Amino acid sequence: MIRTIFTISYLLFVALFASLHAQEIWSLEKCVNYALENNIKIKQGAISTQYQQNQLTQSKNSRLPNFTGQMSQNLNFGRSLTYDNTYKDINSSQTDFGVGTNVAVFQGFQIQNNISKLQLDLEASLSDLEKAKSDISVNIASTFLEILFAKDLVKVSQDQLALTKLQIQQINEKVEAGSLARGSLLEIQAQAAGEELNLVNALNQLQLAKLRLTQLLELPSQDNFDIVAPELPEIQAQASIVPATEVYKSALLTRPEIKGADLRYQSSQYSLKMAQGALYPTVSLYANIYDSYNNKYKDINGADIAFAKQLKNNQRKGVGVQMNIPIFTRFQNKTQVDNAKLQVINTGLELESTKKLLRSDIETAQTTAIAALNRFLSNQKAVSSMREAFRYSEEKFGVGLVNAVEYNTAKSKLTKSESDLIQAKYEFIFRTKILDFYRGLPLTL
After folding, report:
1. Full-model pTM
2. Which whole number is the average pLDDT over 290-304?
């Protein structure tokens, strides 16, 4: 009996824990942080950054001298060179050993320019990573607000349907009492059916918005997924919007896409210097040690020469300096210089294009925010008027002074004005948050 009670208690505890875990709600900050840690594109961006870091490290290491070793085993048949520097018909086996080193002294500044270029490429890759994080944050915030908007629309639909059902109850009582024609009841019931459909559509839109957010988060399932509604700021009639020119000036200093484009422009200039460096002579130092052993080598007395003695006698050492001068390279160097110049021009144009696109986005966000604020203020007045008009129609409908069609018309106008007010509200909040984000402020609600 005790074991049974313990088992039931344990199962209830597990079920309660699973239920609480399944009902976990997500804040905007949690959504953003989760995406930044788990988004595949961001992970790929981090890998790309690590690749650029490895390229930079390898370029710095190219200034170091190399060190190589070699060994070969040869089987010789027929006439071969003997130890006393004469040729004989003899078969022999020869082992060669050697080590060598080489260090670049002058490479037309290509190594240093390549290091500078790759350093800029690394910083550009980091900017790309920040841009990816910025984009996913904005997309999540947009979808998050979309869910809040859909929830408000669901509430409006629910409130309207609840009001209609109350009217059905009141009209049904009057029909039963014989003070109102049954046609009025049928008309209001038809209105309720339409509002139930509107509620279903609103719930579908809410579910789709949740699906889009879970897909952005790359969650395995959207079951039991929900968000916490933050306290949104009140929109005032005198709400101020930062001018686009001021936002743009701040964005030029903080936005990662601008920094990345500028870094790539600087990197292309170092690529040009590298191409021009190929026109210069290159100078390098080298050193090597060589040794060998032959199983058929004999001394003047005809005795085999020992392995250690051969290594001692055959060892050769050398040091030297080498200069390579590009005299004629079939115009390859000239073509590389010309292409590098074109790349400088192209990256410069990309930088200007990125700046113009940023300015366009900021101006669009500001214009949209102003329009949304104007719509919100207008809809605020419209909703207030529509509510008063609907209240008046509701009273007259209750005493039979207006029919169901007129009553439903007033109610539909109120519903539309409330929906327009909610849409303008969220549009204004989102656009102003985007403007703040462009200014370098954190993306919060």
Report:
1. 0.83
2. 82
Distance linking the first and last C-alpha atoms of the chain: 54
Across the range 308-333, mean pLDDT stands at 91
H runs (alpha helix) in 23-84: 28-38, 40-61
Q: Residue 74 forms beta bridges with which residues?
A: 94
One fold for 26-64+107-280+326-438 and 66-106+283-325: no
DSSP for 311-328, please give it.
HHHH-EEEEEEEEE--S-
Compute the average pLDDT of residues 101-123: 95
Rounded CA-CA distance 302/309 in Å is: 15
Cα 246 to Cα 385: distance, rounded to the nearest angstrom = 38
Residue 11: both structure tokens together? 């199962």
* Topology classification of domain 66-106+283-325: Outer membrane efflux proteins (OEP) (2.20.200)
Beta strand spans in 123-269 (E): 226-227
> Is the confidence at residue 68, as pLDDT, over 50?
yes
Q: Which fold does the domain 26-64+107-280+326-438 belong to in CATH?
A: Outer membrane efflux proteins (OEP) (1.20.1600)
Q: Specify whether the CB–CB gap between 144 and 185 falls below 8 A.
A: no
Buried-exposed string 329-367: b where 16+ CB fall within 10 A, e elsewhere: eeeebeebbeebbebbeebbebbeebbeebbebbeebbe
Helix (H/G/I), strand (E/B), else coil: 68 = strand
What band does 9 get if pLDDT is binned at 50, 70 and 90? very low
Better pLDDT: 96 or 14: 96
